[in-house]
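thread from #wetlab-drylab

HS: before we spend reagent money on co-crystallization trials with flavin-adenine dinucleotide, can we at least see a predicted complex? here's what I'd submit
DV: go for it
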Amino acid sequence: MNLDTITEVKRPVSLDDVGPWRSNYAWLAGGTWLYSEPQIATDTLIDLDAFGWQPLGATSKGLEIAATCRVADLHAFAGPEEWRAVPLFRQCIDAFLMSFKIWNAATIGGNVVMSLPAGAMISLTAALEGVCTLWPRDAEPRTLPVVDFVTGNHKNVLRPGELLRSIHLPASALTKRHAMRQMSLTRLGRSAALIVGTVDGDGRNFLLTVTAATPRPVQLRFDRMPTTTELRQAIDERLSPEDYFQDVHGSAAYKRHITYHFAEQIRAELA
Ligand SMILES: Cc1cc2nc3c(=O)[nH]c(=O)nc-3n(C[C@H](O)[C@H](O)[C@H](O)COP(=O)(O)OP(=O)(O)OC[C@H]3O[C@@H](n4cnc5c(N)ncnc54)[C@H](O)[C@@H]3O)c2cc1C
């Protein structure tokens, strides 16, 4: 789509080149959402590409994913053997309703910042205990877990002009075992639920991450693997029937039902 309100596209190489933030500025990543509908309130796009951030950086501490890393780059990533969770990258990416353009142009940061309940890169990075680095406009960088970054349907903690710079996946999460389940009401449709469980090699630290069924990611932590009853109780304590996300991709009651179903399957698989 041609965005006929846009009068300027800036391509800064550093943040200093951006100048004072205006409310009609928007950061441009892959542009797959920005160009998909009119952007009436925006007259200037600020392209993140010229910052030249390295898409992926693997160290002994974990994996640093630049916000500008393309979905296709993450799909192609092959980590060290001990990072047992790397196949989850592809499982989550494949769960993503995606055209050729989104596959090749959309960025991990763009998907997380969109903060859609079915944001598959939110599911992935929240499940792997990702930590966002944010660059506010006039303050020091700040960090917070992905699970706290998204606050609701299409809502997050970003302040005006604040940039999502990167997401760090700690090695401790990348070495965990995992199980994932996803459901869409239609083939290649948007996820009605995408649920991931991870657990340490010794069966401790079970972490269940519920996404798509709820407006924002919800995590349940257990020191050891819960029983079927304990897991169900923990879900009920955390999520009331009204806490599930109702939309054309599934009713809240349906999403609640498959959350129980998948959570138990994941528990059984990892137990
Ligand atoms: C037809 C269609 C179907 C879709 N279905 C799904 C789906 O099922 N699941 C799903 O998850 N997504 C879906 N999406 C949305 C898709 O996730 C986005 O198009 C894509 O993830 C956005 O990435 P991008 O890099 O192209 O971002 P852009 O389009 O460039 O930007 C998206 C938004 O994020 C802001 N932004 C981007 N990067 C940053 C950053 N680093 N810091 C601060 N702000 C930033 C932009 O200003 C803009 O507001 C769909 C989109 C379309 C058009």
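DV: The mean pLDDT is 95.
HS: ok that's useful, forwarding to the group
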